[in-house]
């Protein structure tokens, strides 16, 4: 097996304070002021699903507790993060990747799935076709993503249940068959949104392999061989360096 | 596809993706299309299935090579110079958040039948077999002169005018041997041939300073490399473009570039539909490159060929201290050629292949009608070659600037070992498309804690 990037990163609190945030990636790790034993995890979460099922709205509700009825197709939703604190004071930070519309013409890049720890696959309960599409995305995840990925199937727009086309039973049955988490949500009212992300946050640290847990550090941090492009080396100007040759 | 766009971009190579990303950030409405079902065009990194489909269409990848998804084999051998222009664009656009970089472990140069490491520390320099004791002293004086140069302080010039005097004059002033000149001009200034020697010394000075400052930045070599292969670079700029509203369509065949009676760009047609835009940018393959039956305007010309051999090894390259990644430069004089031979090697450390596989690409500019023989001095350094995929790629350039027809064509990826010329192409096309210099601004991003 090749040395892939660790499927998740765990940072005991002490660690995160001494370690300079690795600015190549978005992370800056705020440490909580709670017990020293608290643990911090960071996971990459990707959204999938047909256009207009409410992927971005779901994230907007989760991250900012907002909803916009006339939200345009995803523009500029670059990179969102949200931290969930569990009952045992473990904090789970989600690094959330939106499709940025690249799902529309089947043009999502392999980079999108790369090292994703969890995926929220969204369908619209008022559109039968969107569940079909969700199944396609789940097959794609099983093909492209890491086998340990946690997948949650999410039936959005539960506030529109009068126009429901997808029954709870049907979706739930499919989710059980495929071993997926499942919930219905409404980005508009907020119903079920925090719950599904919290459920993912609870499940992720448990499914993480023990080896990765023991490793602790970020893959490119510490003594690692990764490089930080944003780091301004004192020598970067070069003009006054003693030459090596 | 019924909307109208500001710019249609054809091909998702790195040059096109950087432009697409920057144009979208600037507020342009961009439609970006690729005929392939993967990102990257000629600068893609392929998995095994894609690699075999491209080079050996009738053969399935052997199972002993391991899992398909563990592979990301670059089609062009290039590294990123740590302090170079591409790094600046990566940082300024913040696409670094999608990428993770590692150093290339070493840079080597071939001299008198052996390969030696380009020294990256003073200790290595002292021990290096590349120069004799006295030559080291002369070289030290030469480098001290370069490092100490200040344009506004004539005392640092030692009688040399970088803008007038040739590099030959500078070499002679410090009494450097031909072998040392090869080393400096090819392994540090990264020139592919010797044409630079008779030209003013300034560009060579700039290149040496770029090399040494890049070397100083991370320590082992002047190069960095993205995990999972170079194909991550176009993907990350494509994502940037998409985030700023760019529309992406892969696996979409372009039937025709539609122009009006004056030859001005109107749109592109695909499957009976025509999408309109004010301007089009694309790689040469979308504008008649390689096709013999091109009717109408000749938009691109071939200016040379590059031969590249992608080699799978089951061992590190001999004589390199088992480096997990490296560049070897074989200066042309050392093997009686006009152009250098390059070897670029990466391995599972960079998540581009299965464990215990090493992917080396040997390349040079074609000078004869037997290109494979031309890279033999490079292939011979590799030891036993497990698999070899040979390609001979024409290099194309556009015939026009696009100012008349709004058609802006990028250049093929050249034989240089880095991306500096790619960025020059980006800057050049940007200027022609936008009518102003490319100024890198830090973009506003929504980052929530």
Please specify the SSE layout and strand pairing.
The complex is a heterodimer of chains A (245) and B (449).
Chain A: E1 9-12, H1 13-18, E2 39-49, H2 55-64, E3 80-85, E4 91-97, H3 110-113, E5 118-124, H4 128-144, E6 150-156, H5 168-178, E7 181-184, H6 193-207, H7 210-215, E8 226-227
Parallel strand pairs in A: 2-4, 2-5, 5-6, 6-7
Antiparallel strand pairs in A: 1-2, 3-4
Chain B: E1 4-10, H1 14-25, E2 30-33, E3 45-46, H2 48-55, E4 73-74, E5 80-81, H3 85-93, E6 101-103, E7 106-111, E8 114-117, H4 122-127, H5 133-148, H6 167-174, H7 178-188, H8 202-218, E9 223-226, H9 232-243, E10 247-249, E11 256-259, E12 265-270, E13 273-282, E14 300-313, E15 326-330, E16 341-347, E17 358-365, H10 371-374, H11 376-379, E18 387-398, E19 407-409, H12 420-434
Parallel strand pairs in B: 1-2, 1-13, 2-10, 7-15, 13-19
Antiparallel strand pairs in B: 3-4, 5-9, 6-9, 7-8, 11-12, 12-13, 14-17, 14-18, 15-16, 16-17
Helix pairs in contact in B: 1-9, 1-12
- Average the pLDDT over all residues of chain B and give the rounded result: 93
- Rounded to the nearest angstrom, the distance between the terminal CA atoms of chain A is 39 Å
Percent helix of chain B, as a range, is 25-40%
What CATH calls the topology of the largest domain in chain B is FAD/NAD(P)-binding domain
The parts of chain B where pLDDT drops under 50 for at least 5 residues are 443-449
Class by helix and strand content of chain A?
alpha/beta
Per CATH, the class of chain A reads: Alpha Beta
Question: Which CATH architecture of chain A is right?
Answer: 3-Layer(aba) Sandwich
Characterization of the model:
- The complex is a heterodimer of chains A (245) and B (449).
- By secondary structure, chain A is an alpha/beta fold.
- Chain A has helices spanning 13-18, 55-64, 110-113, 128-144, 168-178, 193-207, 210-215, and strands spanning 9-12, 39-49, 80-85, 91-97, 118-124, 150-156, 181-184, 226-227.
- Chain A has a single domain, classed as P-loop containing nucleotide triphosphate hydrolases (Rossmann fold), CATH 3.40.50.300.
- Chain A contains seven helices and eight strands; from the N terminus they run βαβαββαβαβαβααβ.
- In chain A, strands 1, 2, 3, 4, 5, 6 and 7 form a seven-stranded mixed beta sheet that branches.
- Chain A is globular.
- The relative contact order of chain A is 0.18.
- Chain B has 449 residues and is of the alpha/beta class.
- Chain B has twelve helices and 19 strands.
- In chain B, the strands form four sheets. In chain B, strands 1, 2, 10, 11, 12, 13 and 19 form a seven-stranded mixed beta sheet that branches. A seven-stranded mixed beta sheet of chain B has the order 8-7-15-16-17-14-18. In chain B, strands 5-9-6 form a three-stranded antiparallel beta sheet.
- In chain B, a hairpin with a 5-residue loop joins β11 and β12.
- The radius of gyration of chain B is 23 Å and the shape is globular.
- The two termini of chain B are 37 Å apart.
- The interface between A and B is large, with 55 and 70 residues.
């Amino acid at each position: 097996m090749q040395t892939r990037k660790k499927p998740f990163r765990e940072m005991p609190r002490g660690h995160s304070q001494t370690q300079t945030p690795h600015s190549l990636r978005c992370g800056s790790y705020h440490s909580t002021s709670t017990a020293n034993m608290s643990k911090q995890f960071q996971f990459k979460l990707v959204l999938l699903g047909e256009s207009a099922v409410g992927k971005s709205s779901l994230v907007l509700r989760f991250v900012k507790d907002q909803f916009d009825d006339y939200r345009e197709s995803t523009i500029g939703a670059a990179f969102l993060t949200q931290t969930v604190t569990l009952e045992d004071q473990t904090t789970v930070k989600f690094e959330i990747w939106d499709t940025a519309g690249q799902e529309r013409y089947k043009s999502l890049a392999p980079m999108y799935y790369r090292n994703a720890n969890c995926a929220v696959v969204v369908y619209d309960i008022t559109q039968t076709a969107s569940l079909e599409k969700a199944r396609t995305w789940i097959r794609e995840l099983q093909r492209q993503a890491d086998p340990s990925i946690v997948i949650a199937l999410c039936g959005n727009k539960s506030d529109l249940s009068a126009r429901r086309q997808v029954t709870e039973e049907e979706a739930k049955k499919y989710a059980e068959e495929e071993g997926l988490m499942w919930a219905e949500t409404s980005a508009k009212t907020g119903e079920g949104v925090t719950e599904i992300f919290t459920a993912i946050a609870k499940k992720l640290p448990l499914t993480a392999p023990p080896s990765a847990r023991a490793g602790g550090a970020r893959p490119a941090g510490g003594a690692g061989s990764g490089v930080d492009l944003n780091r301004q080396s004192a020598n970067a100007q070069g003009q006054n360096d003693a030459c090596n040759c | 596809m019924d909307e109208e766009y500001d710019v249609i971009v054809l091909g998702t190579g790195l040059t096109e993706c950087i432009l697409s990303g920057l144009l979208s950030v600037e507020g342009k409405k961009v439609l970006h299309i690729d005929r392939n079902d993967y990102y990257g065009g000629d600068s893609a990194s392929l998995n095994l299935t894609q690699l075999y489909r491209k080079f050996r269409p009738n053969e399935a990848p052997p199972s002993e090579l391991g899992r398909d998804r563990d592979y990301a084999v670059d089609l062009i051998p290039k590294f990123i110079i740590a302090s170079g222009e591409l790094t600046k664009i990566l940082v300024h656009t913040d696409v670094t958040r999608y990428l993770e970089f590692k150093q290339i472990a070493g840079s080597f140069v071939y001299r008198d039948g052996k390969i030696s490491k380009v020294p990256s520390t003073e200790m290595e320099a002292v021990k290096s077999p590349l120069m004799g004791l006295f030559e080291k002293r002369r070289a030290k004086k030469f480098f001290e002169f370069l490092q100490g140069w200040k344009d506004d302080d004539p005392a640092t010039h030692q009688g040399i005018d970088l803008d007038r005097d040739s590099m030959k004059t500078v070499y002679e002033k410090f009494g450097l041997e031909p072998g040392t000149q090869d080393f400096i001009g090819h392994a540090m200034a990264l020139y592919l041939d010797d044409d630079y020697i008779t030209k003013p010394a300034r560009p060579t000075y700039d290149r040496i300073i770029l090399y040494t400052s890049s070397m100083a930045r991370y320590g082992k070599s002047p190069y960095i490399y993205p995990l999972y292969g170079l194909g991550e670079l176009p993907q990350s700029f494509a994502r940037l473009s998409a985030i700023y509203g760019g529309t992406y369509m892969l696996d979409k065949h372009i039937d025709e570039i539609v122009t009006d009676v004056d030859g001005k760009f109107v749109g592109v047609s695909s499957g009976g539909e025509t999408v309109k835009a004010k301007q089009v940018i694309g790689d040469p393959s979308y504008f008649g490159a390689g096709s013999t039956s091109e009717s109408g305007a000749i938009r691109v010309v071939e200016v040379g060929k590059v031969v590249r051999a992608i080699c799978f090894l089951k061992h590190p390259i001999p004589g390199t201290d088992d480096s997990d990644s490296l560049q070897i430069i074989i200066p042309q004089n050392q093997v009686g050629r006009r152009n250098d031979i390059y070897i670029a090697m990466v391995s599972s450390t960079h998540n581009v292949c299965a464990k215990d596989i090493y992917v080396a690409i040997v390349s040079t500019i074609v000078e004869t009608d037997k290109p494979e023989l031309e890279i033999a001095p490079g292939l011979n350094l590799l030891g036993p070659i497990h698999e070899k995929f040979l390609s001979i790629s024409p290099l194309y350039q556009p015939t026009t600037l696009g100012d008349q027809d709004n058609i802006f064509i990028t250049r093929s990826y050249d034989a240089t070992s880095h991306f500096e010329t790619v960025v020059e192409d980006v800057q050049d096309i940007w200027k022609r498309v936008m009518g102003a210099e490319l100024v890198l601004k830090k973009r506003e991003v929504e980052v929530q804690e």
